[in-house]
Amino acid sequence: MKTIRIKCRETAKESVIICRKNVLSKQLASDLPWLKERGGIVFTDSNVFALYGKQIGACLEGLPVFTMPAGEENKNEQTLFALLRAMAEAGLRRNSVLIAIGGGVVGDVGGLAASLYMRGIDCIQVPTTLLAQVDSSVGGKTAIDFCGVKNLIGAFRQPVRVYADPAFFGTLPPREIRCGLGEIIKHGALNARLFGELLENRSRLTDLGFLASIVPENIQIKADVVRKDPAETGLRRCLNLGHTTGHALELSGADLSHGECVLIGLLYESRLALRCRGADGEYLSSLGSLIRDVLVCDPRAFDMRSAAHLALLDKKNTKKDSVTLAVPLRMGEVSYLELPYAEYERALEKIGRTL
Ligand SMILES: NC(=O)c1ccc[n+]([C@@H]2O[C@H](COP(=O)([O-])OP(=O)(O)OC[C@H]3O[C@@H](n4cnc5c(N)ncnc54)[C@H](O)[C@@H]3O)[C@@H](O)[C@H]2O)c1
Ligand SMILES: [Zn+2]
């Protein structure tokens, strides 16, 4: 068992992240008395409910359960307001708790609902995907997609607790494992120790035992960044590595998971980084080969021209016709680029031809 804490400056509350086994049967079951006293609601999605609904019902007996249809396409205002309605109908009060059990979609929508209901109630995150454990459940970013833009409506609110249990990985399809590896390799680009471990274990990157062993380290890397910059005014922008191009690819309708888009984004952006002063070519090429170990698709097979256009919608852009990106520079070091749109588009197309 490992415990990681993030102190939230605005509310002086602490976010406690606990990595342990038997989260449902031991941790949540033992929390049940205080959850019942304060009033709680369980929020999950249809896939997680099909797999773990019985266990959830047994461990959290007596708490209402609201289930959203699974999938990013449902990370929208209809789901958010249906959940808020269920919370009101369950009679939740200011000290009540929302328990989000699922992947990043459930975590993001549940976290946002918790931040809105009565101007904010506590939220416990129980991430069930690799991506949600190493990334989305930590750090207090919550959101829904809106008007075709990913995460356009959201809030910062730290969960009071995060319970990460690797046993959930046992039911994840291989695609979701690759998805989580997208964020893990991104963390590797920020942390020399993890990068070394990933390179050393190249032959077993998808091994569930290996992944379980590196979850706490990944959470720690993210927590250390979030602790220093909870509202993303500076340092936290480094967590956007691969995400400008990755999000654009995701929006272009490519049949890829979020993490796979991030990996392809990181591959293209590490080539873009070569134009920066001080870029370490050897390191960027090891990063590229690690990414290729995980990808099962051809990174050249996408329409990078349309993706480039969609990158103009990115929330991180500060100028109208420019694209702002965080790119990997050297081991553990990130640089920030602001490229005029036309130049970004040309560069992506060129990289696509030479990958
Ligand atoms: N808030 C943040 O800081 C942050 C960071 C990264 C990503 N995100 C968001 O997270 C989302 C992606 O998260 P995700 O990849 O977890 O997607 P997801 O929540 O859609 O989960 C992926 C799929 O796996 C299923 N699933 C969940 N747990 C399972 C389990 N244990 N066994 C079998 N199936 C399971 C889900 O039902 C879904 O079909 C995106 O919306 C992204 O924007 C947010
Ligand atoms: Zn991400």
Number of helices: 13
What is the CATH architecture assignment of the largest domain? Up-down Bundle
Q: Bound small molecules, which ones?
A: nicotinamide-adenine-dinucleotide, zinc ion
Task: Label the structural class.
Answer: alpha/beta
Q: Return residue spans where pLDDT drops below 50 for at least 5 consecutive residues.
A: none
Whole-number count of domains: 2
Strand content range = 15-25%
Helical percent range?
40-55%
Gyration radius, rounded? 20 Å
CATH H-level superfamily title of the largest domain: Dehydroquinate synthase-like - alpha domain
Give average pLDDT, whole number: 93
Bulk shape? globular
At the fold tier of CATH, the topology name of the largest domain is Dehydroquinate synthase-like, alpha domain
Question: What is the rounded distance between the termini?
Answer: 42 Å
Q: How would you explain this protein's 3D organization?
A:
The chain has a seven-stranded mixed sheet, sandwiched between helices. Strands 7-8 form a two-stranded antiparallel sheet. The chain is 48% helix and 19% strand. It has helices at 23-38, 46-59, 77-89, 104-116, 130-136, 174-190, 192-200, 208-228, 243-251, 258-273, 281-294, 304-310, 341-354, and strands at residues 2-7, 14-19, 40-45, 65-68, 97-102, 122-127, 141-146, 149-156, 161-164, 322-330, 333-340. The protein is globular and about 60 Å long. The protein is an alpha/beta fold. It has two domains: 2-171, Rossmann fold, CATH 3.40.50.1970; 174-354, Dehydroquinate synthase-like - alpha domain (Dehydroquinate synthase-like, alpha domain, Up-down Bundle), CATH 1.20.1090. The site of zinc ion (ZN) has 5 residues, from helix 10. Residues 135, 183, 243, 258, 262 line the site of zinc ion.
